[in-house]
Amino acid sequence: MSEPLRIKIKNQFTPVHLISHIVLLGVGLVLLYPLIFMVLAGFFSKTEFTSTVLGVFPIPKAPTLANYKALVMGSIDTAVTVYFRNSIIRTAYNTFWALITSFLAGYVFARLKFKGKETLFLIMLATQMIPTTLAIIPTYLEYARFPFAGGNRIFTGGTGILNTWWIYLIGGPAINIMGTFLVKQSLEKVPIELDEAARMDGAGTFRLIFQILFPLQLPIMAFIAITTALGTWNDFITPFFYTSSDSLQTLPAAITKLSSVGASPGAVINYPLIITLSLGVTLPALLIFFFFQKYIVQGLASTGIKG
Amino acid sequence: MDKTAQILGKSSFKRVMRRHRDAVIAAVILTPMLLFWLILSGVPTIFGFFLGFFNWVGLNDTPDFIWFDNFIRFFKDPVYTGALWRSIWLGGLVTAVTLISGFGAAILMNMPLIGKGFYRSLWYIPAVTSTVATTQVFNILLDTNNGVINNFLKSIGKEPIIWQYSAGWGIFWIVVYSAWKGVGGAALIWLAGLQSVDQTLYEAADIDGAGRWAKLKFVTMPGLKPIATYIVITSLIGAIQIYEQVLFITNGGPYGQTEVLVFRIYRDGFWDFNLGMAGASSLIMAVIVIVATVFYYKWSTGSDKRMTIPNKPIKRGR
């Protein structure tokens, strides 16, 4: 593949290459269309959006920055700032814990020897097969009947931890099984002699983990951080199902409540506001993606193929 | 006496520590994580399976143990068998469309093109967006009165279509949305597979005078077999659980004709408060997914030693 650049450029103009370029770019731009639409629609004022006949590329006659300003600085008719704050706190919290639990548990399963290790790991992997959506209703019941919380006398009587910050916090320290699997796989490629050498030099377990092994796992840790961050950032299930008060909503949950799913039947859907909030969810996710895309590509490939 | 006991106690503690050092460290690290995991997923999942054996309508109702009645109803009631069947064929359709288009893209991305990396990122962008946000754009495009597509149809002199009245169009847009979101990821995994095919085989094929098509058929396809099984099964397992796009694009309508099983579970649980049926459906869905995974695992470890697990996005904090 180390042909000179001149030949490589010349090769781009053979019919097959040209067609590939056209297809990849053309279809790629079509894939981008919904996002382009979103950005354009963001320049409409509320009244103009409903009164304009929307074309394929809607351009407002009187473009306004009000929606974008509302995103950055907050606005009167929505608690955008609160949603943003909640989204950011949740994302940071879950990402922080995902890194810690994946790395420590990955270390345990890759390096330590104890009885029942393989069995425990297999059970953990097996639970990954059970569809997470199916736990929504039982989770609701569990949170509602959480012992001694939210006015509960043991199990009943109150609302448990529903509609409190606890529903966001409680999941954090739970083991991240996918992450554990990835770290384990990656640590097993690091020769054990490295650990032994470090111990000979007098490093304790703590130091060995954080000063020697952790820096070697940075790419896979970056992948875990990005997927957790994007997953939490885009997640609407937790806030939508287990909270109701406005001060606990995140951006995706706020959109859900405004959309046809959450609005009362027959209500007119406020699309300009939905678009504004959608931009608020989408643009930061795109930023994260652009900065760390290298790790996503690497990580995705390594989840599928070993070695 | 006192002193000896102290020394003895201390040294025996030390001895235990030395002999079971690994186990102690593992326990200290894993126990809290597993406890929190139990609260987050373990207890609700097991609880959910038991729900299926109860008649429990409404949160304040007292649950009745009714053995297998919910499961019997599941297989007799066309609402549930219909939803299950729809999950399976819709999942198959989504998988087929996503993987075939992804494969085409991967073949093109695997050529020595300038700007490969750019194309890879461009195609992957939909995957990082939020389902809630992007389905709303689809809804604006599909609006009956002022939707972009209907406006376009009117402008070229065609009748506008009321998408929401037709189950066929509903399914069509669910498939389009799912493929839109999934094609980039599929292309990336296919691409990793294409790059793992032994390059010397292509050189050998060149010497034998094989054309582009012959190389695809006799070198690429057989070399891709392991990754193909992986991606087909994991995509299928993911696609039969599709429900978010159903919720936001058609909301099960018209008249429940686009209801898939996971959507039905959501509906039973949160609209009809029929917790027993939701639990029974969950258990059936879980059994299907587990059987498919085990089947795949046996198959893939039988043919080669690749270690793969269901490709599930890392989603936390439920």
From TrEMBL, chain A:
List each copy of the ABC transmembrane type-1 domain by range. Answer: 84-292
Has UniProt tagged this entry with the keyword Transcription regulation? no
A GO cellular component annotation in the UniProt record: plasma membrane
- Which of UniProt's keywords are assigned here? Cell membrane, Membrane, Transmembrane, Transmembrane helix, Transport
Position of the signal peptide: none
Segments traversing the membrane: 21-44, 91-109, 121-141, 165-183, 208-233, 269-292
Membrane topology recorded in Swiss-Prot or TrEMBL: Multi-pass membrane protein
InterPro entries found in the cross-reference section: MetI-like (IPR000515), MetI-like_sf (IPR035906)
- Share an example GO biological-process annotation for this protein: transmembrane transport
Give its localization: Cell membrane
Cross-referenced PANTHER family: ABC TRANSPORTER PERMEASE PROTEIN MG189-RELATED, ABC TRANSPORTER PERMEASE PROTEIN MG189-RELATED-RELATED
Family assignment from sequence similarity: Belongs to the binding-protein-dependent transport system permease family.
Q: What is this protein called?
A: ABC transporter permease subunit
- Recorded source organism is Paenibacillus monticola
Which taxonomic lineage does the organism of this UniProt entry have? Bacteria, Bacillati, Bacillota, Bacilli, Bacillales
Automatic annotation (TrEMBL), chain B:
A GO-annotated cellular component: plasma membrane
In this chain the ABC transmembrane type-1 domain maps to: 84-296
Q: Which Gene3D superfamilies match?
A: MetI-like
Q: What organism is listed for this UniProt entry?
A: Paenibacillus monticola
Q: Which SUPFAM superfamilies match?
A: MetI-like (SSF161098)
Supply the name of the protein.
ABC transporter permease subunit
Localized where?
A: Cell membrane
Q: Which GO terms of type biological process are on file?
A: transmembrane transport
Q: Which UniProt keywords apply?
A: Cell membrane, Membrane, Transmembrane, Transmembrane helix, Transport
Q: Topology versus the membrane, per the UniProt entry?
A: Multi-pass membrane protein
Recorded superkingdom: Bacteria
InterPro entries, per the entry: ABC_transporter_permease (IPR051393), MetI-like (IPR000515), MetI-like_sf (IPR035906)
Transmembrane regions listed in the UniProt entry: 23-54, 88-109, 121-142, 162-180, 227-243, 275-297
Which PANTHER family does the UniProt record give? ABC TRANSPORTER PERMEASE PROTEIN, INNER MEMBRANE ABC TRANSPORTER PERMEASE PROTEIN YCJO
